[in-house]
Amino acid sequence: MRKGPTILSGPAATAVFDQALRDETAGGRRGPLAGLTSRAGYRRRLRRRFADWTAAEHHRDPEWGATDDGDGATIAAAEVATFRRYRRLLTGLDAEDEAGLAVWASIKLRDRGGSGDGDRLVFLDFDGRTPARWRILRDALERPRSVDVTLCHHDDPERAELFLAATALRDRLLELGLSESVLPSCPRRPAGLRAVDALLFGPSSARIEAAEGLSIRGGPAGMDLGRMVAREAKGLLDARVPPDEVLVVFPRRDEQAEAAVEALRAAGLPVHDDGPTPLDRDPAVAAALQAARIPVEDWEVELVVRLLRNGQLRPDWKDVGRMELAEAASTLRTLSVFRGKGHILTALARAIARSEEGPNEAETRRREEEVARARRAYPILEDLIGAIDGLSHDRPWSEHVAGFRRAVESLGIGRRDPAALETLWDALDDRAEVFDRLGRGTTAVAWREFVEELADVAAPPRPRAASARPRSTRSTASAPGTS
Questions:
Q1: Which are the contacts of 311, defined by CB distance < 8 A and separation ≥ 6?
Q2: Are residues 296 and 160 located together in one domain of the fold?
Q3: Domain range spanning residue 313?
Q4: In this structure, are 49 and 130 located in the same domain?
Q5: Which long-range contacts (CB under 8 A, 24 or more apart) does 165-171 make?
Q6: What's the Cα-to-Cα distance from 306 to each of 291, 386, 406, rounded to whole Å?
Q7: Which pick of 5, 139, 179, 395 has the fewest CB atoms within 10 Å?
Q8: pLDDT for 367-425, tens place per residue?
Protein backbone atom coordinates (compact mmCIF):
# COMPACT_ATOMS: atom_id res chain seq x y z
CA MET A 1 0.00 0.00 0.00
CA ARG A 2 1.43 3.36 -0.95
CA LYS A 3 2.00 6.04 1.61
CA GLY A 4 -1.27 7.63 2.59
CA PRO A 5 -2.25 11.29 2.72
CA THR A 6 -1.30 13.57 5.57
CA ILE A 7 -3.97 13.40 8.28
CA LEU A 8 -5.01 16.92 9.25
CA SER A 9 -6.07 17.77 12.78
CA GLY A 10 -9.35 19.60 13.28
CA PRO A 11 -7.72 23.07 13.45
CA ALA A 12 -5.55 22.31 10.41
CA ALA A 13 -8.57 21.16 8.37
CA THR A 14 -10.40 24.31 9.49
CA ALA A 15 -7.54 26.39 8.11
CA VAL A 16 -8.03 24.74 4.70
CA PHE A 17 -11.78 25.35 4.98
CA ASP A 18 -11.16 29.03 5.77
CA GLN A 19 -8.87 29.33 2.75
CA ALA A 20 -11.50 27.80 0.46
CA LEU A 21 -14.18 30.13 1.82
CA ARG A 22 -11.85 33.12 1.53
CA ASP A 23 -11.05 32.25 -2.09
CA GLU A 24 -14.70 31.74 -2.98
CA THR A 25 -15.82 35.05 -1.41
CA ALA A 26 -12.71 37.11 -2.26
CA GLY A 27 -12.01 37.58 1.40
CA GLY A 28 -15.67 38.10 2.28
CA ARG A 29 -16.19 40.92 -0.24
CA ARG A 30 -18.29 39.30 -2.98
CA GLY A 31 -20.50 36.36 -3.83
CA PRO A 32 -23.68 34.98 -2.22
CA LEU A 33 -21.77 33.63 0.80
CA ALA A 34 -19.98 36.90 1.62
CA GLY A 35 -22.78 38.15 3.85
CA LEU A 36 -23.18 34.81 5.59
CA THR A 37 -19.61 34.22 6.74
CA SER A 38 -19.93 36.70 9.62
CA ARG A 39 -23.20 35.23 10.91
CA ALA A 40 -22.90 33.39 14.19
CA GLY A 41 -22.58 29.64 13.67
CA TYR A 42 -22.70 29.67 9.85
CA ARG A 43 -19.10 28.62 9.29
CA ARG A 44 -19.41 25.80 11.82
CA ARG A 45 -22.61 24.53 10.19
CA LEU A 46 -21.00 24.68 6.75
CA ARG A 47 -17.99 22.70 7.98
CA ARG A 48 -20.32 20.00 9.33
CA ARG A 49 -22.10 19.96 5.97
CA PHE A 50 -18.78 19.51 4.20
CA ALA A 51 -18.01 16.54 6.46
CA ASP A 52 -21.39 14.98 5.61
CA TRP A 53 -20.84 15.56 1.88
CA THR A 54 -17.38 14.01 2.09
CA ALA A 55 -18.71 10.97 3.97
CA ALA A 56 -21.38 10.61 1.27
CA GLU A 57 -18.53 10.80 -1.30
CA HIS A 58 -20.14 13.61 -3.28
CA HIS A 59 -16.65 14.91 -4.10
CA ARG A 60 -16.05 11.76 -6.14
CA ASP A 61 -19.13 12.42 -8.29
CA PRO A 62 -18.49 15.16 -10.89
CA GLU A 63 -22.23 15.32 -11.68
CA TRP A 64 -23.28 15.99 -8.09
CA GLY A 65 -24.44 19.51 -7.29
CA ALA A 66 -27.00 21.62 -5.49
CA THR A 67 -30.59 20.42 -5.80
CA ASP A 68 -32.31 23.46 -4.27
CA ASP A 69 -34.35 25.20 -6.99
CA GLY A 70 -35.97 27.74 -4.67
CA ASP A 71 -34.78 31.01 -3.21
CA GLY A 72 -31.71 29.31 -1.74
CA ALA A 73 -30.47 27.89 -5.05
CA THR A 74 -27.76 30.53 -5.48
CA ILE A 75 -26.44 30.04 -1.96
CA ALA A 76 -26.58 26.24 -2.27
CA ALA A 77 -24.63 26.37 -5.53
CA ALA A 78 -22.01 28.64 -3.93
CA GLU A 79 -21.66 26.24 -0.99
CA VAL A 80 -21.14 23.32 -3.36
CA ALA A 81 -18.51 25.33 -5.27
CA THR A 82 -16.75 26.12 -1.99
CA PHE A 83 -16.87 22.43 -1.05
CA ARG A 84 -15.24 21.43 -4.32
CA ARG A 85 -12.60 24.13 -3.84
CA TYR A 86 -11.97 22.79 -0.31
CA ARG A 87 -11.48 19.28 -1.67
CA ARG A 88 -9.11 20.54 -4.38
CA LEU A 89 -7.01 22.31 -1.75
CA LEU A 90 -6.79 19.08 0.25
CA THR A 91 -5.75 17.18 -2.89
CA GLY A 92 -3.07 19.77 -3.60
CA LEU A 93 -1.73 19.34 -0.07
CA ASP A 94 -1.93 15.51 -0.36
CA ALA A 95 -3.91 15.66 2.88
CA GLU A 96 -7.25 14.47 4.25
CA ASP A 97 -9.61 15.53 7.00
CA GLU A 98 -11.28 12.98 9.27
CA ALA A 99 -14.22 12.27 6.97
CA GLY A 100 -12.00 12.02 3.88
CA LEU A 101 -9.61 9.66 5.64
CA ALA A 102 -12.44 7.17 6.23
CA VAL A 103 -13.28 7.24 2.52
CA TRP A 104 -9.62 6.85 1.50
CA ALA A 105 -9.08 3.97 3.95
CA SER A 106 -12.14 2.08 2.71
CA ILE A 107 -10.93 2.37 -0.89
CA LYS A 108 -7.40 1.21 -0.02
CA LEU A 109 -8.77 -1.74 1.96
CA ARG A 110 -10.82 -2.67 -1.07
CA ASP A 111 -7.77 -2.46 -3.36
CA ARG A 112 -5.30 -4.26 -1.12
CA GLY A 113 -4.01 -7.75 -1.86
CA GLY A 114 -4.29 -10.82 0.35
CA SER A 115 -7.12 -13.23 0.90
CA GLY A 116 -7.83 -12.65 4.57
CA ASP A 117 -7.97 -16.43 5.19
CA GLY A 118 -8.71 -17.32 8.80
CA ASP A 119 -9.97 -13.85 9.77
CA ARG A 120 -13.18 -13.33 11.64
CA LEU A 121 -14.80 -9.90 11.56
CA VAL A 122 -17.73 -8.68 13.62
CA PHE A 123 -19.55 -5.45 12.67
CA LEU A 124 -21.34 -4.31 15.81
CA ASP A 125 -24.56 -2.29 15.30
CA PHE A 126 -23.77 -1.71 11.62
CA ASP A 127 -25.62 1.44 10.48
CA GLY A 128 -24.54 1.73 6.83
CA ARG A 129 -24.67 5.50 6.92
CA THR A 130 -21.87 6.06 4.40
CA PRO A 131 -20.67 4.42 1.18
CA ALA A 132 -17.31 3.79 2.88
CA ARG A 133 -18.93 1.51 5.46
CA TRP A 134 -20.74 -0.50 2.79
CA ARG A 135 -17.51 -0.75 0.78
CA ILE A 136 -15.67 -2.22 3.76
CA LEU A 137 -18.49 -4.68 4.47
CA ARG A 138 -18.67 -5.85 0.83
CA ASP A 139 -14.89 -6.30 0.78
CA ALA A 140 -15.10 -8.46 3.92
CA LEU A 141 -17.89 -10.59 2.47
CA GLU A 142 -16.02 -11.23 -0.78
CA ARG A 143 -13.03 -12.73 0.99
CA PRO A 144 -12.91 -16.22 2.58
CA ARG A 145 -13.54 -15.28 6.17
CA SER A 146 -16.26 -15.40 8.81
CA VAL A 147 -18.31 -12.20 8.99
CA ASP A 148 -20.94 -11.38 11.61
CA VAL A 149 -23.10 -8.23 11.49
CA THR A 150 -25.27 -7.27 14.45
CA LEU A 151 -28.41 -5.20 14.04
CA CYS A 152 -31.10 -4.10 16.47
CA HIS A 153 -34.35 -5.31 14.88
CA HIS A 154 -37.58 -7.09 15.83
CA ASP A 155 -40.09 -8.83 13.57
CA ASP A 156 -43.11 -8.11 15.78
CA PRO A 157 -45.69 -6.37 13.48
CA GLU A 158 -47.04 -4.41 16.44
CA ARG A 159 -43.65 -2.74 16.90
CA ALA A 160 -42.71 -2.42 13.22
CA GLU A 161 -42.78 1.39 13.36
CA LEU A 162 -39.90 1.34 15.85
CA PHE A 163 -37.65 -0.46 13.38
CA LEU A 164 -38.48 1.24 10.07
CA ALA A 165 -34.90 2.39 9.48
CA ALA A 166 -33.45 -0.93 10.61
CA THR A 167 -35.85 -2.85 8.35
CA ALA A 168 -34.46 -1.21 5.19
CA LEU A 169 -30.93 -1.86 6.40
CA ARG A 170 -31.80 -5.51 7.21
CA ASP A 171 -33.25 -6.04 3.73
CA ARG A 172 -30.08 -4.72 2.12
CA LEU A 173 -27.90 -6.96 4.29
CA LEU A 174 -29.95 -9.99 3.29
CA GLU A 175 -29.53 -9.03 -0.37
CA LEU A 176 -25.76 -9.24 0.14
CA GLY A 177 -26.19 -12.92 1.00
CA LEU A 178 -26.06 -12.78 4.79
CA SER A 179 -28.14 -15.31 6.68
CA GLU A 180 -30.13 -14.14 9.69
CA SER A 181 -29.98 -15.54 13.21
CA VAL A 182 -32.14 -14.14 16.00
CA LEU A 183 -30.40 -13.71 19.33
CA PRO A 184 -32.76 -14.02 22.30
CA SER A 185 -32.47 -11.67 25.24
CA CYS A 186 -29.69 -12.76 27.57
CA PRO A 187 -31.23 -14.85 30.39
CA ARG A 188 -28.70 -13.39 32.83
CA ARG A 189 -30.26 -9.92 32.46
CA PRO A 190 -32.75 -8.95 35.20
CA ALA A 191 -36.34 -9.91 34.42
CA GLY A 192 -37.53 -6.29 34.41
CA LEU A 193 -35.06 -5.28 31.70
CA ARG A 194 -35.93 -8.31 29.56
CA ALA A 195 -39.62 -7.37 29.84
CA VAL A 196 -38.91 -3.79 28.76
CA ASP A 197 -37.06 -5.11 25.71
CA ALA A 198 -40.09 -7.18 24.72
CA LEU A 199 -42.97 -4.83 25.58
CA LEU A 200 -41.88 -1.20 25.51
CA PHE A 201 -43.64 0.93 22.87
CA GLY A 202 -45.84 -1.97 21.81
CA PRO A 203 -49.55 -1.13 21.23
CA SER A 204 -50.78 -3.99 23.42
CA SER A 205 -51.59 -3.49 27.09
CA ALA A 206 -49.34 -6.26 28.39
CA ARG A 207 -47.95 -5.59 31.84
CA ILE A 208 -44.46 -6.09 33.13
CA GLU A 209 -44.94 -8.81 35.73
CA ALA A 210 -41.45 -8.77 37.26
CA ALA A 211 -39.69 -5.44 37.84
CA GLU A 212 -36.36 -6.91 38.92
CA GLY A 213 -33.52 -4.67 37.73
CA LEU A 214 -35.91 -1.89 36.65
CA SER A 215 -36.39 1.37 38.53
CA ILE A 216 -38.06 4.46 37.04
CA ARG A 217 -37.47 7.86 38.62
CA GLY A 218 -38.57 11.34 37.64
CA GLY A 219 -37.93 14.88 38.68
CA PRO A 220 -37.84 18.50 37.48
CA ALA A 221 -35.34 19.21 34.75
CA GLY A 222 -32.06 20.90 35.55
CA MET A 223 -29.98 20.63 38.68
CA ASP A 224 -32.80 18.94 40.64
CA LEU A 225 -32.78 16.02 38.23
CA GLY A 226 -28.98 16.02 38.46
CA ARG A 227 -29.18 15.74 42.24
CA MET A 228 -31.60 12.84 41.89
CA VAL A 229 -29.08 11.05 39.65
CA ALA A 230 -26.38 11.77 42.23
CA ARG A 231 -28.53 10.27 45.02
CA GLU A 232 -29.12 7.12 42.97
CA ALA A 233 -25.41 6.76 42.24
CA LYS A 234 -24.51 7.37 45.88
CA GLY A 235 -27.06 4.76 46.94
CA LEU A 236 -25.39 2.20 44.70
CA LEU A 237 -21.96 3.03 46.09
CA ASP A 238 -23.29 2.85 49.66
CA ALA A 239 -24.62 -0.61 48.78
CA ARG A 240 -21.00 -1.54 47.96
CA VAL A 241 -21.46 -1.60 44.19
CA PRO A 242 -17.94 -1.02 42.76
CA PRO A 243 -17.69 2.48 41.23
CA ASP A 244 -16.27 0.97 38.03
CA GLU A 245 -19.63 -0.78 37.50
CA VAL A 246 -21.78 2.38 37.70
CA LEU A 247 -22.50 3.89 34.28
CA VAL A 248 -24.75 6.94 33.83
CA VAL A 249 -25.91 7.27 30.20
CA PHE A 250 -27.65 10.28 28.62
CA PRO A 251 -29.46 10.23 25.24
CA ARG A 252 -27.46 13.29 24.15
CA ARG A 253 -24.84 15.70 25.43
CA ASP A 254 -26.86 18.70 26.64
CA GLU A 255 -27.32 21.00 29.63
CA GLN A 256 -29.14 18.26 31.56
CA ALA A 257 -26.20 15.88 31.18
CA GLU A 258 -23.78 18.58 32.32
CA ALA A 259 -26.02 19.38 35.32
CA ALA A 260 -25.99 15.71 36.34
CA VAL A 261 -22.19 15.54 36.10
CA GLU A 262 -21.93 18.73 38.15
CA ALA A 263 -24.29 17.30 40.79
CA LEU A 264 -22.32 14.04 40.97
CA ARG A 265 -19.11 15.95 41.57
CA ALA A 266 -20.77 18.27 44.10
CA ALA A 267 -21.84 15.14 46.02
CA GLY A 268 -18.18 14.14 46.27
CA LEU A 269 -18.51 11.18 43.90
CA PRO A 270 -15.55 10.22 41.69
CA VAL A 271 -16.75 10.87 38.13
CA HIS A 272 -15.07 10.23 34.80
CA ASP A 273 -16.94 12.29 32.19
CA ASP A 274 -16.64 10.89 28.65
CA GLY A 275 -18.35 13.94 27.18
CA PRO A 276 -16.37 16.31 24.95
CA THR A 277 -15.33 19.61 26.51
CA PRO A 278 -14.59 22.70 24.42
CA LEU A 279 -11.15 24.11 25.07
CA ASP A 280 -12.59 27.50 25.92
CA ARG A 281 -14.32 25.95 28.95
CA ASP A 282 -10.91 25.45 30.53
CA PRO A 283 -10.18 28.36 32.94
CA ALA A 284 -6.65 28.96 31.60
CA VAL A 285 -7.76 29.00 27.94
CA ALA A 286 -10.74 31.22 28.80
CA ALA A 287 -8.42 33.69 30.57
CA ALA A 288 -6.03 33.70 27.59
CA LEU A 289 -8.91 34.43 25.20
CA GLN A 290 -10.08 37.18 27.54
CA ALA A 291 -6.65 38.81 27.43
CA ALA A 292 -6.47 38.49 23.64
CA ARG A 293 -9.77 40.31 23.15
CA ILE A 294 -8.86 43.37 25.24
CA PRO A 295 -6.88 45.18 22.48
CA VAL A 296 -9.65 44.33 19.98
CA GLU A 297 -12.18 46.12 22.21
CA ASP A 298 -9.85 49.12 22.66
CA TRP A 299 -9.14 48.35 26.30
CA GLU A 300 -12.73 48.42 27.48
CA VAL A 301 -12.51 48.94 31.25
CA GLU A 302 -15.01 46.20 32.10
CA LEU A 303 -12.90 43.61 30.24
CA VAL A 304 -9.71 44.82 31.96
CA VAL A 305 -11.38 44.61 35.38
CA ARG A 306 -12.55 41.07 34.72
CA LEU A 307 -9.05 39.99 33.67
CA LEU A 308 -7.46 41.58 36.76
CA ARG A 309 -9.92 39.65 38.94
CA ASN A 310 -9.40 36.39 37.10
CA GLY A 311 -7.66 33.88 39.36
CA GLN A 312 -5.64 32.58 36.39
CA LEU A 313 -3.71 35.88 36.19
CA ARG A 314 -0.47 35.29 38.11
CA PRO A 315 2.26 37.59 36.68
CA ASP A 316 5.79 37.72 38.09
CA TRP A 317 5.65 41.49 38.57
CA LYS A 318 7.45 42.82 41.61
CA ASP A 319 5.32 42.96 44.77
CA VAL A 320 2.16 42.07 42.85
CA GLY A 321 -0.07 39.24 44.07
CA ARG A 322 -3.76 38.44 44.03
CA MET A 323 -4.66 41.19 46.52
CA GLU A 324 -2.82 43.85 44.53
CA LEU A 325 -4.48 42.78 41.28
CA ALA A 326 -7.93 42.84 42.89
CA GLU A 327 -7.23 46.28 44.39
CA ALA A 328 -6.14 47.60 40.98
CA ALA A 329 -9.42 46.30 39.50
CA SER A 330 -11.45 48.06 42.18
CA THR A 331 -9.50 51.30 41.67
CA LEU A 332 -10.07 51.14 37.93
CA ARG A 333 -13.80 50.74 38.51
CA THR A 334 -13.91 54.07 40.41
CA LEU A 335 -12.40 56.08 37.54
CA SER A 336 -14.48 58.07 35.06
CA VAL A 337 -13.10 56.22 32.05
CA PHE A 338 -14.69 53.61 29.81
CA ARG A 339 -12.07 52.49 27.30
CA GLY A 340 -8.67 53.28 25.80
CA LYS A 341 -5.30 52.41 27.32
CA GLY A 342 -4.15 56.04 27.15
CA HIS A 343 -7.33 57.22 28.86
CA ILE A 344 -6.88 54.63 31.62
CA LEU A 345 -3.32 55.73 32.42
CA THR A 346 -4.30 59.42 32.18
CA ALA A 347 -7.19 58.90 34.59
CA LEU A 348 -4.87 57.13 37.06
CA ALA A 349 -2.30 59.93 36.74
CA ARG A 350 -5.02 62.49 37.53
CA ALA A 351 -6.08 60.47 40.55
CA ILE A 352 -2.48 60.40 41.78
CA ALA A 353 -2.12 64.17 41.29
CA ARG A 354 -5.25 64.99 43.28
CA SER A 355 -4.80 67.01 46.43
CA GLU A 356 -4.80 64.83 49.53
CA GLU A 357 -6.01 67.61 51.82
CA GLY A 358 -9.65 67.53 52.82
CA PRO A 359 -11.99 69.72 54.86
CA ASN A 360 -11.55 67.43 57.84
CA GLU A 361 -9.26 64.66 59.05
CA ALA A 362 -11.50 61.80 57.94
CA GLU A 363 -11.78 63.19 54.41
CA THR A 364 -8.01 63.74 54.28
CA ARG A 365 -7.40 60.08 55.21
CA ARG A 366 -9.89 58.93 52.58
CA ARG A 367 -8.20 61.00 49.87
CA GLU A 368 -4.76 59.80 50.94
CA GLU A 369 -5.91 56.21 50.63
CA GLU A 370 -7.43 56.86 47.18
CA VAL A 371 -4.18 58.41 45.97
CA ALA A 372 -2.17 55.55 47.45
CA ARG A 373 -4.38 52.98 45.67
CA ALA A 374 -4.01 54.85 42.37
CA ARG A 375 -0.21 54.88 42.84
CA ARG A 376 -0.21 51.11 43.39
CA ALA A 377 -2.55 50.50 40.46
CA TYR A 378 -0.64 52.61 37.92
CA PRO A 379 2.41 50.31 37.47
CA ILE A 380 0.12 47.24 37.37
CA LEU A 381 -1.95 48.70 34.51
CA GLU A 382 1.22 49.89 32.81
CA ASP A 383 2.70 46.37 32.95
CA LEU A 384 -0.55 44.83 31.75
CA ILE A 385 -0.68 47.18 28.77
CA GLY A 386 2.96 46.43 28.01
CA ALA A 387 2.30 42.67 28.04
CA ILE A 388 -0.79 42.73 25.80
CA ASP A 389 -0.93 45.84 23.65
CA GLY A 390 2.08 44.96 21.52
CA LEU A 391 0.11 42.03 20.12
CA SER A 392 -2.30 44.22 18.15
CA HIS A 393 -0.14 44.71 15.05
CA ASP A 394 -0.57 43.07 11.66
CA ARG A 395 1.87 40.19 11.28
CA PRO A 396 1.96 36.62 9.88
CA TRP A 397 -0.08 33.98 11.68
CA SER A 398 2.92 32.13 13.11
CA GLU A 399 4.28 35.38 14.59
CA HIS A 400 0.89 36.11 16.16
CA VAL A 401 0.97 32.64 17.75
CA ALA A 402 4.49 33.12 19.13
CA GLY A 403 3.73 36.60 20.49
CA PHE A 404 0.45 35.52 22.03
CA ARG A 405 2.12 32.57 23.74
CA ARG A 406 4.82 34.83 25.20
CA ALA A 407 2.18 37.23 26.49
CA VAL A 408 0.16 34.44 28.12
CA GLU A 409 3.28 33.05 29.79
CA SER A 410 4.34 36.49 31.02
CA LEU A 411 0.90 36.92 32.60
CA GLY A 412 1.28 33.59 34.39
CA ILE A 413 -1.94 32.23 32.88
CA GLY A 414 -2.21 28.45 33.15
CA ARG A 415 0.83 28.19 35.39
CA ARG A 416 -0.78 25.63 37.68
CA ASP A 417 -2.38 23.44 34.98
CA PRO A 418 -1.06 24.14 31.48
CA ALA A 419 -2.47 20.99 29.81
CA ALA A 420 -5.35 22.70 27.98
CA LEU A 421 -3.13 25.58 26.88
CA GLU A 422 -0.65 23.09 25.44
CA THR A 423 -3.50 21.59 23.43
CA LEU A 424 -4.34 25.09 22.19
CA TRP A 425 -0.71 25.79 21.20
CA ASP A 426 -0.59 22.50 19.28
CA ALA A 427 -3.79 23.40 17.44
CA LEU A 428 -2.46 26.84 16.52
CA ASP A 429 0.83 25.34 15.32
CA ASP A 430 -1.13 22.89 13.12
CA ARG A 431 -3.01 25.80 11.62
CA ALA A 432 0.21 27.75 11.03
CA GLU A 433 1.74 24.75 9.22
CA VAL A 434 -1.24 24.50 6.87
CA PHE A 435 -1.05 28.23 6.14
CA ASP A 436 2.61 27.75 5.19
CA ARG A 437 1.69 24.90 2.82
CA LEU A 438 -1.07 27.01 1.30
CA GLY A 439 1.40 29.82 0.63
CA ARG A 440 -0.08 32.13 3.28
CA GLY A 441 2.72 31.75 5.81
CA THR A 442 4.08 35.26 5.24
CA THR A 443 0.73 37.01 4.74
CA ALA A 444 0.06 39.67 7.36
CA VAL A 445 -3.03 39.01 9.47
CA ALA A 446 -4.83 41.67 11.50
CA TRP A 447 -4.98 41.01 15.25
CA ARG A 448 -8.78 41.19 15.20
CA GLU A 449 -8.91 38.46 12.54
CA PHE A 450 -6.43 36.35 14.51
CA VAL A 451 -8.54 36.64 17.67
CA GLU A 452 -11.71 35.61 15.83
CA GLU A 453 -9.96 32.53 14.41
CA LEU A 454 -8.41 31.86 17.82
CA ALA A 455 -11.86 31.72 19.38
CA ASP A 456 -12.97 29.38 16.58
CA VAL A 457 -10.03 27.04 17.24
CA ALA A 458 -10.80 26.95 20.98
CA ALA A 459 -14.52 26.31 20.56
CA PRO A 460 -14.55 22.75 19.09
CA PRO A 461 -14.53 19.93 21.64
CA ARG A 462 -11.28 18.22 22.53
CA PRO A 463 -11.39 14.43 23.00
CA ARG A 464 -11.21 13.09 26.50
CA ALA A 465 -9.05 10.16 27.55
CA ALA A 466 -10.54 6.90 26.32
CA SER A 467 -10.42 5.08 29.64
CA ALA A 468 -11.78 6.07 33.01
CA ARG A 469 -9.67 6.24 36.12
CA PRO A 470 -10.03 3.12 38.28
CA ARG A 471 -12.76 3.31 40.92
CA SER A 472 -14.66 6.16 39.28
CA THR A 473 -18.30 6.42 38.20
CA ARG A 474 -18.49 6.88 34.43
CA SER A 475 -20.71 9.33 32.57
CA THR A 476 -21.26 9.21 28.83
CA ALA A 477 -23.71 10.23 26.11
CA SER A 478 -25.36 7.63 23.92
CA ALA A 479 -27.23 8.07 20.67
CA PRO A 480 -30.88 6.98 20.83
CA GLY A 481 -31.30 3.32 19.95
CA THR A 482 -27.92 2.12 21.20
CA SER A 483 -27.37 -0.14 24.14
A1: 283, 322
A2: no
A3: 283-461
A4: no
A5: 169/126, 169/127, 169/128
A6: 10, 18, 21
A7: 179
A8: 888 888 888 989 999 999 999 988 888 999 889 998 999 999 999 998 888 888 888 88
